[in-house]
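Work Package 3 (structural annotation) set out to generate three-dimensional models for the target panel prioritized at the project kickoff. During this period the team completed the workflow that converts sequence records into discrete structure tokens, so that structures can be stored uniformly alongside our sequence database. As a representative example, we reproduce one entry of 179 residues exactly as it appears in the project archive.
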Amino acid sequence: MAQPGRLRRPGRGLKTEEKSIESRSTNRLEHKNSDRPEKRLQERQQRARPITLALHAWLIAQRTKVVDGGATAKALDYSLKRWAALMRYLDDPVLPIDNNHDEQQIRTWATGRKNWLFAGTLLAGQRAAAITSLIQSAKLNGHDPYAYLKDVLTRLPTHKARDIDQLLPHLWQPLPATA
């Protein structure tokens, strides 16, 4: 186990042990109260609001010490300009504390975009993008991508062209099992 304050690599980027423990604790709290918005709002007001207010004061104090135009000034200005959006989650218990779920959803697209550069030809890249789009859409609609693609590719040769939209992930229904 890492000693507190020592840098470690938990898989993605460097974090200090204290920050990692605090982050896991906050996320556990959010998850524990996920079905009780009023409890989540109360916890955010009691625990997170004082921390965010202290951070805001620190950002403002640091901004007065930094010369305009530098990278640090730009970073501080970026945070301060978006402060209202950051604070919004404190007053709305429905808003998630982070966007990890959304980031997980788009990771495949970002990875794919890099991979499609090396598909060989433009047409091959477009085909890879189309297949990835179908797979991700199937996942977002709650389908098993393998079962979805297997069923669609089996039906496709005999499916009527005018009904092709029925094979799209948001409209697709698996064929009933034949005994």
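The CA atoms of residues 37 and 93 lie 5 Å apart.
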